[in-house]
């Protein structure tokens, strides 16, 4: 009987995780599909107080990348049994990073479209869409009961790595090429 219950619990989290992965694939595919089907005209959607939309996107993306470093440090602290406030820092730095990433993604998808004119831009386009898909999987997996202990750190690591590469292929490139 106990073995049957364990099999049922394992099956539940596996199906739930599979559903989360399917949702993540759908998000990534929808972003890529829309951006590819509706190539942007490059018209700026926002500039904030910056000289161009790309400069504004770079600033927002750089702030989001900095908050992802806070995410990584707080996740490590939580897994090492840090104080209770670390979970609060982790959650809210993630909310802020995601909030900063949304207008960047919107400008990319709406105004610039899915691009493949260079390897750097293609990698940025593909991994930018993948970032939001993996982020979706991680957020949904947070609510799945019975997940093995390795699942959330792997998903979190993928989110950090993807955002890092997406930022490096755009924000960092812009800062090094054009300047702040």
- Element-level helix/strand string: HHHHH
- Note the total helix count: 5
- What is the arithmetic mean of pLDDT? 90
User: Roughly how many Å is the radius of gyration?
Assistant: 18 Å
The end-to-end span amounts to 64 Å
Work out the oligomeric state of the chains in this entry: single chain
Strand count, sense and barrel status of the largest sheet are:
none
Number of domains: 1
3D shape: globular
Query: What is the helical fraction, as a range of percent?
Result: over 70%
Uncertain stretches: none
* Helix-strand category: mainly alpha
Our estimate of the beta-strand percent is under 5%
Q: Characteristics of this structure?
A:
180 residues; mainly alpha; 5 helices
Topology:
Layout: H1 2-37, H2 53-79, H3 85-112, H4 119-141, H5 151-177
Task: Kindly describe this structure.
InterPro entries: DUF6529. The chain crosses the membrane at residues 15-34, 46-72, 92-114, 121-144, 150-176. This is DUF998 domain-containing protein. Keywords: Membrane, Transmembrane, Transmembrane helix. By secondary structure, this protein is mainly alpha-helical. The chain has one domain (51-177). Helix content is 78%, strand content 0%. The chain has five helices and no strands. The protein has helices at 2-37, 53-79, 85-112, 119-141, 151-177. The longest helix is centred in the first third of the chain and has 36 residues, at 2-37. The N and C termini lie far apart (64 Å).
């Amino acid at each position: 009987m106990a073995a049957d219950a364990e099999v049922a619990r394992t099956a539940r989290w596996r199906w739930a995780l599979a559903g989360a992965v399917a949702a993540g694939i759908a998000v990534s595919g929808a972003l890529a599909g829309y951006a590819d089907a509706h190539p942007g005209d490059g018209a700026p959607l926002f500039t904030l107080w910056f000289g161009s939309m790309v400069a504004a996107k770079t600033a927002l993306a750089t702030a989001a990348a900095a908050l992802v470093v806070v995410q990584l440090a707080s996740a490590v602290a939580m897994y090492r049994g840090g104080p209770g406030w670390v979970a609060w820092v982790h959650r809210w730095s993630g909310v802020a990073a995601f909030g900063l990433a949304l207008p960047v993604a919107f400008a990319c998808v709406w105004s610039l479209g899915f691009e493949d004119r260079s390897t750097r831009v293609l990698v940025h386009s593909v991994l930018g869409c993948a970032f939001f898909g993996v982020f979706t999987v991680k957020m949904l997996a947070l609510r799945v009961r019975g997940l093995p202990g390795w699942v959330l750190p792997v998903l979190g690591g993928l989110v950090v790595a993807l955002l890092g590469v997406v930022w490096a292929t755009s924000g960092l490139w812009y800062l090094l090429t054009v300047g702040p």
